[in-house]
Amino acid sequence: MSATLLSMAFLPAGCPRVWTLTAPAPFADETSCQCQAPHEKLTIAQARLGTPVDRPVRVYADGIFDLFHSGHARALMQAKTLFPNSYLLVGVCSDDLTHKFKGFTVMNEAERYEALRHCRYVDEVIRDAPWTLTPEFLEKHKIDFVAHDDIPYSSAGSDDVYKHIKEAGMFVPTQRTEGISTSDIITRIVRDYDVYARRNLQRGYTAKELNVSFINEKKYRFQNQVDKMKEKVKNVEERSKEFVNRVEEKSHDLIQKWEEKSREFIGNFLELFGPDGAWKQMFQERSSRMLQALSPKQSPVSSPTRSRSPSRSPSPTFSWLPNKTSPPSSPKAASASISSMSEGDEDEK
Known about the structure:
This protein is an alpha/beta fold. It has helices at residues 3-9, 44-49, 70-80, 95-101, 109-117, 135-140, 163-167, 182-191, 193-202, 214-273, 278-294, 331-348; strands at residues 57-63, 86-92, 124-127, 145-149, 171-174.
């Protein structure tokens, strides 16, 4: 059972349940139900071993809580989880006390109260909490222990405003969160004042609302225009780079495809026209056919049916042709030569 439900379980009979875990924590002065259970003083050892069954341990934490941040929330989480069953009351100092003892705040007291009400670890918020805790205040709210970091807090003429709480054995230390504090946040804003002033002018705030002079306003607005131009140039450069990258990728793909097609073309060319290519073989075949067609047919050397007479030559002779060196001496001799040639042809047939 949660601490909130336990704390409500021991209220007087007929007291209604005025809040749930889905609602903000109530203010102490608006709560009609007050803790009426017997309140015996507890030691830290007893609280850590387990509290009496009739009530939770009531833990109190106070502060300014200006610009509520994670460091505040972690401190309240530690206070809430100090004991197995605890009820966390958070006191928030008013603007008057804070401005008097600590300094000016960014958030007013109403805003700071509301910020605490919506923290999940807070069970109850006490408005206008005292700067120094008095016995009457502790008794009124039935506070068992006070949670705060252990660093001495010097203020209001005291070396440590929690000194008497520590001496009474009611102080339980928590740990600070390094790197985050209200002062750190304000320091960042002051350091980068021009940046935030330009930012808010761009968002529609007036120079009067920002307490900015006329000259600074014009300067900030000019700087905003320069920044816009730089941003446009940057966008153009990025788009140009993207376009160039896309062109390079496509060029690479085209070159790769061209190389593949070139290798394929060269391979086909060599296969067709190379030393052992199909075109050479086809050319040789056609050449051989043409040579065979153009070459004269050779006469057979011997006849299978009859043999030549020894008086005749094995190959056809052209004895009928007139001898250039010895022309026929007379017409009779020429006539005899022609008749012998005709007889030779008949024998051939």
